[in-house]
Every structure is written in structure tokens, then in C-alpha cells.
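Just curious: can you write whichever protein you like plus the matching C-alpha cells?

***
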Amino acid sequence: MVAMAEKLKKAFRAFIPYVPAVVCFVASLFGEKVTAAFLVTTGVVCLTAVVCVQQRRETRDQDDWIACLNVKRHDWLNHIQVIKGYLTLKKHDRLQPYLEHIMSEIEQESKICHLGYSPLSRYLLTRQLLNDSILHVHIVEGLKIANDGQGERLMKTIQEVESFVRNVYAKIPEPQAKIEMTLAPFEGGIMLYIDFPDHFRLRRALREADWTGLRNKVSSRNGEVFFHKGDLAAACSVRIV
């Protein structure tokens, strides 16, 4: 009961901004025939719809987190098996590099968790663990998102870049290799360095891609796109302020 009450409160708060629009829309449809009871009924129906949408979203989020935990459990089981194998075979020379690889992964995940904007951390971690991203993200030491506004702009920009790359990949038959993206602090803002794989067909597709559209979308969020040495198919940088 308590959980349901909390869900109703959240749904009601989410619905409040839309009340005037709903009332005006219903009134415009039915004019003077509108009654208070009808408006209340309409509001209840809309509120119910909001609750259903939120429940579906929460269920999807829970499923994602369960899937992430399962992936992590599987990864650590693999790590333990590899370590046990090296110890059993006394291949200590291979054990040290493998442990360093594990530590590097943990450090990157820790940096993602401490970016300072939870929605972005969640987005990057879930996509990374579920292998649902074509971006391989590296976080430079010391990167910290200044505020929620900057965090939202950064997340939207990363999503735009990801969508842009997916559209490019859709035009070529090669396997979808990961795109390297590095996030680093830069003059009070954040710089995204994007490196594309050195594939001939990918380079040609990138030259024909809608770079103007990407530039306009990023610019609308106080960002700037820079191309390295004028080569659209090699690398680019995006600065978020």
C-alpha cells in the first residue's frame, strides 16, 4: 500500500503541469457541454495512464539492473576461473597483466560512477554492461560535471553522437567496431574526443554523413564540434560548456 501511494504521488506530481492543457483541450472539444464530473473523469483517466507508463518504465529499469548484475556476476566468475587457471598452471607471468586489466576496468567504472550526474552514469554503465553501445568510453582522471545542466547536455550529446554513428554504420556491411570516445576536462568545460576505426568503407560513409546536422544539434546545447585537420573520417572533438 505504501509503495502504491508513493507511485500515485509521483504520477500526480508528473501530471500536474499538464492539467491546464488537458482542461483546455477537453473544453475546446465539447464547449459548454463540459461538466465538472466529465473533467474529473478525464483527469482520472489521464492520471491512470501516467501511472501505467511510470510502472512500465520502472519495470524496464529494474529488468535492466537485474541484467547488469547478472552480466557482472558472469564477468567475475570468468575472471576467477582465469585466475585459478593461471595459478594452477603456475603461469604467474600472465597473472600480473591480467590483474592489471581487471583493475583498469574497475577504475573506469569507478570514474563513470563519480562523474557527478547520476543519469549519465547510469546510462553509460547499463549500456556498457549490456553491450548495447557502439561507444567505448574512457574517462580522464579529474573529470567532474559542474552541474545538472552540463550533465544533461553532455548525456544528450553522447546520445546524438551514438545515433549519428549508428546511422553511418547502417550503410556499410562491416562489423560494428567500437568507436573510441574520451571524456576530459577542458577550460572549464568538457571535451569529447572521438576516434573512428580505420576502415575504408567506414571512412567513405563518414565523409557522406550528415555532419552539419550533428553540428547543429550539438550547438543547440552550448556545444561545439571540431574536425581534426579537416578530415571528417578520422576524428573529431566536441566541447560542452
Q: What stands out?
A: The chain is about 65% helix and 15% strand. The two ends are 44 Å apart (CA to CA).
